[in-house]
């Protein structure tokens, strides 16, 4: 049996006379079994209106929630997700900052394991108006300084020439170094025609999970 399976060999201390430091092996194994399951984003789909979200920008007619598919909208492929957030004619950005220690993660274990951080988000446009979508996810240290960041190019959707149905964007953070304490998840956008109302990008299904 390969006892190194699932072990971060970069942090194992090895004595030529004794082999693997079993204390670190035990710590890594314990971390895997004490995995904090589930999505770390609270209210990812708008079921609780805008609860748990910090509204960084709230332009136009401001953020709101609606039921899928919504006016001039698109169906979603997961029955468990029934609502979405919608943006307006000026920039709408919302954010959650996840405190990993408050969520029950041990700082020493985070530094040793540097667990994989998985990010997902879903966005779509309307059938009658174009929109812009943006996303920024940052790994932060104890001072909330950026360690690593995922910030794809803004996506512009035009229903006259683009498929504006629900699309998933995803990213995986690995090997980011010790010190991870917070994760910032920020997304939003607006419409491209400056129409009064909620004709901008729609978002739902936001997810941040950690594999241990």
UniProtKB/TrEMBL annotation:
Taxonomy of the source species: Eukaryota, Metazoa, Chordata, Craniata, Vertebrata
Example GO BP: ERAD pathway
Gene Ontology cellular component annotations, sorted alphabetically: cytoplasm; SCF ubiquitin ligase complex
Superkingdom classification of source: Eukaryota
Full protein name: FBA domain-containing protein
Stored PANTHER family: F-BOX ONLY PROTEIN 2, F-BOX ONLY PROTEIN 6-LIKE PROTEIN
InterPro entries on file: F-box-assoc_dom, F-box_only, Galactose-bd-like_sf
Pfam families the UniProt entry points to: FBA
GO MF term (any one): ubiquitin protein ligase activity
Domain FBA: 29-212
